[in-house]
Amino acid sequence: MMQLCGSESSNKHSLINVMNRFIAAANNMDETIMVPSLLKDVPLEEQESADPVVVVNNNNNEPVPNGKQRDMYEHYLLLKSIKNDMEWGLFKKDGSGASSFLEMALKQEEQQQQQQQQEGGGRGETPGEETSDLEGQFHFHLRGLFGVLSKLTVQADHLTNRYKREIGGGNFIR
After folding, report:
1. How confident is the model over 105-155, as pLDDT tens digits?
2. Neighbour tally for 161: CB within 10 Å
3. Distance (Å, rounded) from C-alpha 77 to C-alpha 60?
4. What CA–CA distances, in Å, run from 85 to 36, 59, 105?
5. pTM (two decimals)
6. Which of 167, 147, 138 is nearest to 33 (CA)?
7. Which residues pair with 18 in a beta bridge?
């Protein structure tokens, strides 16, 4: 058992390693950005054409309010929030009692499942039919998670490097 765990963590394509890379990039971002308020009103889109970074919007492509482009500060807070959700779980509450991003997504998914069960009540589905494609669902979500975490890692690194350039610390870019 111990060897299995050791070999899993050494596989660069494991989910654990992808998660750890994102968390490390987010931690590096958090440690590097000593004054996050300097990121306010700095546009996120000052990217070289050779560095394709996809911008993550609020709650799965929900448009940014008032047509305002997200600035680096908002993006910093988003990446930090996602990291905290990953580390502390779905039901972490902040001091104000507001729900985390993942908790809101979980509640929305539960509501959709309840609606489907109410609508599909007369179809006669058996429990085996509901779970027959669990492996396919798992692989679909796993691929999505790998893709999202990889993009978030690139974004955290990009934000860290942009901050270093903005404050004149460009010589220290990793």
Report:
1. 677 778 877 887 787 654 444 555 566 689 999 999 999 999 999 999 999
2. 18
3. 16
4. 20, 14, 12
5. 0.62
6. 167
7. none
